[in-house]
Automatic annotation (TrEMBL):
GO terms for biological process: guanine metabolic process. It comes from Massariosphaeria phaeospora. Catalyzes the hydrolytic deamination of guanine, producing xanthine and ammonia. This is Probable guanine deaminase. Its EC number is 3.5.4.3.
Amino acid sequence: YLGAFVHSVSLQELEICPCGAIGVDEEGVIRFVERDVDGDTGRVYAKHEQWKGASVVRIQGKGFFFPGFIDTHTHAPQHPNTGLFGQTTLLSWLTTYTFPLEASLSSLPTAHRIYSNFVSRTLSHGTTTCAYYATIHVPATNLLASLCLARGQRALVGRVCMTTDMSPDYYRDASVASALRDSQASIDYIRAIDPHGAIVRPVVTPRFAPSCSTECLAALGALAHSTDSFIQTHISENTGEIALVRDLFPASDSYAAVYDAAHLLTPRTILAHAVHLSAAERKLVASRGAKIAHCPASNTALTSGCAPVRELLDAGLTIGLGTDVSGGFSPSILEECRQAIWASRFRAMCDGDAAKLTTGEVLYLATRGGAEVVGLEDKVGGFEVGMEWDAQMVRLGEVPVPVGLMGGDESEHEGDAADVDIAELANRGVDAPQTEPFRNGPVDV
Ligand code: GUN
Ligand code: FE
């Protein structure tokens, strides 16, 4: 692959290589990464004789390669509700909008429509790896895993567990025993369709502490251990939720302690939100090696709060970004990057300038950070020898420019905006060129 590439080297360093070459073998594994390549002469081949005759993809001047985005937390069944919040906050939003929609996925044709659309949608936004919550329904959960496998999207797919009367009668596990049985059935299915977990892997998914009894949480901790599975759940998203957890689990010191007592805090645990964790909870989560999915769009939409990402990073926590559809209003991790920057700037108004996240930092969270959260840091999130070629191509230079605004002979330009001096257009009092029509329109599920 010849052309520009951009990727995060560390939280502090975003590498921008204007003319590179990445050699990818037939298995999709990166075998060399060259910077400073002459695209015309192909000088790189002198150094890599054995690659003579390899097929070449050239993108010089058209855009750049960037690692595929990693969405560390989203709810596939909630896609049709994107943007619906009214005046609700988390607990009323769940009962008003979320549970009724999720219950409708007892119908497999409905699940197929929603899930195939959502997988297409996340892929269209460059998400090559995604941690999905499904619903309590085993057939629909298994279908989501099959769709991810068929589309080649790396995924963690979790059947949601919810046994308490926090959930309505019409959408609840019948018992802890049946929740366990159904979770095991979904794990078995996913392991059967992808035995090595190359693309899809199961994830044990207690919805959140209020949805599960102490017995249920402990049983799910044991299930994750016995099946060697990832775990995902929500933590400390909203102050009303935290008060509810305090009431429901009076013997526990904190929300994090509830999960810890059930052996649910492990190096393969993804905790969504962590907006209001105490210093002691941060320390506990970090000491267990559990990871955080930061979901700023959702936290703003449901008025949950602004997660203190700088403090979480300083506490040594590993963080990725999550769209949290439909608490979050977009399936795009790039949008989540913007929202992470904005949320950090709201924090900065109280905490000081150190709270501000940079563009480089949020792009790191969207790729390398997310890869660590889902346990794929050796495979995806950056361009290194030995890692998988898991990339998106970002196209540039295809912005249509209104006729009459370009200098010189317009026939030479043929609509290519790369030569247009935007500063000059601004000086002439003309809006910058528009991008292509916004494709993220109403969802046709
Ligand atoms: N907490 C429990 N369930 C949910 C959910 O579906 N979305 C969000 N954002 N938080 C939750
Ligand atoms: Fe969520």
